[in-house]
Design a protein that fits this description.
The chain is of the alpha+beta class and 213 residues long. 41% of the residues lie in helices and 26% in strands. Strands 1, 2, 4, 5, 6, 7 and 8 form a seven-stranded mixed sheet that branches. Strands 3-9 form a two-stranded antiparallel ribbon.
């Protein structure tokens, strides 16, 4: 089995690019982790789907991933790196073999892994896809998180601060509207159809008015 040593991973619900890692994320310093060279088709499925690996794969991975910890070295029972020679994906599996956490790598560390992958043969991985992962391909993590919080804030403003909602609408769209239902509908429509034009205006508005982003 091939291993990669001394890398950082940000194992979470979604495999964020390194520039989307947050300061409060739990970044783990991997001492050693198995590496598998797979086809681009397989890597795409591993990235976009929730999967279950077979028992023989779990046996290969069992306690092979080591993590630096305060009290020494700890083990991640089932984890590994997959790469098609173009990108690298870290996945942690639970004790039923289900993929639960994923991570991309820092750019320099990914390049080092890709160099290793180019020298090892492809592996055939036995797994079953059990569902698609929800992914926002064209939005950054910051933008996705803003949208989730903004949707809640819209509902709050509609109930508690209608005048502020009217002001937001005027500032962003240069139009007056008294009906808050129309305002919410138009804002959501604009975010859906013209996200990259609407998002900066909304973000700045909430930043300036000290509303949580």
């Amino acid at each position: 089995m091939n291993y990669i040593y001394d890398i950082l991973v940000n194992l979470g619900d979604k495999p964020y690019d390194f520039y989307d890692w947050n300061l409060d994320d739990t970044i783990e310093h991997i001492r050693k982790i198995p590496l598998f060279h797979v086809s681009s088709i397989i890597l795409k499925e591993l990235r976009e789907c929730r999967i279950v690996i077979r028992e023989e794969m779990m046996e290969k991975l069992n306690n092979k991933t080591e993590v630096f910890a305060k009290k020494g070295i700890e083990l991640i029972p089932y984890a590994c790196l997959f790469s098609d020679g173009m990108e690298v994906l870290a996945i942690e599996f639970n004790h039923q073999g289900v993929s639960v956490f994923k991570s991309k790598l820092l750019l320099e560390e990914e390049e080092e892994v890709l160099e290793v992958v180019s020298r090892i043969p492809e592996s055939q991985i036995s797994y079953t896809m059990i569902g698609k992962e929800e992914m926002e391909v064209f939005k950054t993590r910051k933008e996705v998180e803003f949208l989730e919080e903004f949707d809640q804030e819209l509902s709050r403003l509609k109930k508690e601060q209608a005048q502020k909602l009217r002001y937001l609408y005027y500032e962003c769209f240069n139009k007056k509207e008294e009906n808050v239902n129309i305002i919410v509908k138009e804002i959501k429509k604009s975010l859906k159809e013209n996200f990259h034009d609407t998002y900066p205006q909304l973000y700045q508005f909430f930043k300036l008015t000290s509303v949580k982003k």
